[in-house]
Amino acid sequence: MDVVGKSLNCTHTANNMSITEEAAKTAKATWSGPTTTDGKFIWYGPNTGAQLSGQSLQLTNDIGLAMTTCTNGTCQGAPVGLGEVWIKYWIEANPDWSYKNMTREAFDTFAHEAVQRYESVIGTNDPDLTAFYKKGGKILGYHGMHDQIIPVKGTRHYYNNVKEIIPEVASFYRMFEVPGLLHCSGGKGGQPTNTFDALRAWVENGTVPAELPHSFKDDNGDEQHRLLCPYPQKAWLKINDTDKAVYKSTDFVCV
């Protein structure tokens, strides 16, 4: 709560805005992830730095989990439509249902019921990939660290669960975290474009993707080069020059 009352420049509005206690509590709760009324964990929240607000309910790179709509200075929540549509049509089966009348207790019920009713139908979180592994299958995935819709912590959770069953998970499954990447696209870090080539080289030639060179345009229009590392490794700058305008992927090492 150290930012409450401080004036910060808002890039979306190009105005200075004072951070209210309500806004700080909303941000903290969103980052922490949803819990039940008695404080039990439901799921992860987005990383600090992920976009919480947004300008559009349709564009995946311009939405957040804590959006609001304001009229004459009065603001109220305008949640992402994904959750509302899910409850309206798949849980309640009532097109007239509205989140505006939902209680915290009702939210707990919806979250629990969604898993009970649909996990066996559309669930993708089974960590037992033994059969796939034994057949020689390979998985190469990536996840934006600033994904504001599907938290990257959930992907870490899944990868760690796979590792508990198959300790040598890295021999067939590699997950790369992309700093600055939002949901699907957007953000400061750009999205990787060489993942399919890396996967094909792994499958066809046995070339293990120990790292992925990565490039993107920064705010100045300069092309920056980075190194993406397989989780849980991280990219570290291996040169002493921390003030370069442009870096090369060879300036980094996976540790």
Automatic annotation (TrEMBL):
Leading EC class: hydrolase
Enzyme Commission identifier(s): 3.1.1.-
Keywords assigned by UniProt, alphabetized: Disulfide bond, Hydrolase, Serine esterase, Signal
Top-level taxonomic group: Eukaryota
A molecular-function term among this protein's GO annotations: carboxylic ester hydrolase activity
Pfam families: Tannase
Family: Belongs to the tannase family.
Alphabetical list of PANTHER family matching this protein: CARBOXYLIC ESTER HYDROLASE, FERULOYL ESTERASE B-RELATED
The protein, known as: Carboxylic ester hydrolase
Lineage: Eukaryota, Fungi, Dikarya, Ascomycota, Pezizomycotina
